[in-house]
Amino acid sequence: EEPEGALGEAVPTAKETLKVELADTPDEATGQTLGRYKLLEKIGEGGCGVVYVAEQAEPVRRRVALKVIKLGMDTKQVVARFEAERQALAMMDHPNIAKVLDAGSTETGRPYFVMELVRGIRITDYCDQHNLPTQDRLDLFIKICQAIQHAHQKGIIHRDIKPSNILVTLHDGVPVPKVIDFGIAKATEGRLTDATVYTQLHQFIGTPAYMSPEQAEMSGLDIDTRSDIYSLGVLLFELLAGSTPFDPKELMAAGIDEMRKTIREKEPPRPSTRLATLGADQLTTTAKRRSSDAPRLIHLLKGDLDWIVMKCLEKDPARRYETANGLAADIKRHLNYEPVVARPPSSAYKVSKFVRRNKLAVAAGTAVLLALVLGLGSATVMFFRERAANRRALEEVRARLVERAMNAAMSGNRDAVQQALEAAKAENISGGQLAIVEGLRDLASGNPEGAVKHLGEATKSLPNSAAAHALLATAFVYAQDPENHYAALANLEKFKEQTPEDYLFKGQALSLKGDGLRLLDHAVESQPTALAYMLRAEARAILAMHTNDIEAALKDVAVAKTKTLSQKHVTLLVNSCLTHLVAAEIYRRAGNIAQSNNHLGEAEKDGQQLELFSENSHALRWRIWQLESADLDQGSDRAFEYANRLLSEHKVRQPLLQMSYGTALLIRGQVRKALEVYNSAPQDLWIDSMRPFALFELPDHRKEFEKELARYRERYPGPFLESTVPSLLLYAAKKQEAKTTARMLADQPERFNLLPLGHQREVNYLAGRLDEKAFLNAAQGSLGEACWAHCLIGFQNWADGDHAGAAEHFRQAIDTRAFTSGPTYYWAQVALAQLKRHPTWPPEEPAKE
Question: The whole model's pTM is what?
Answer without folding.
Answer: 0.50
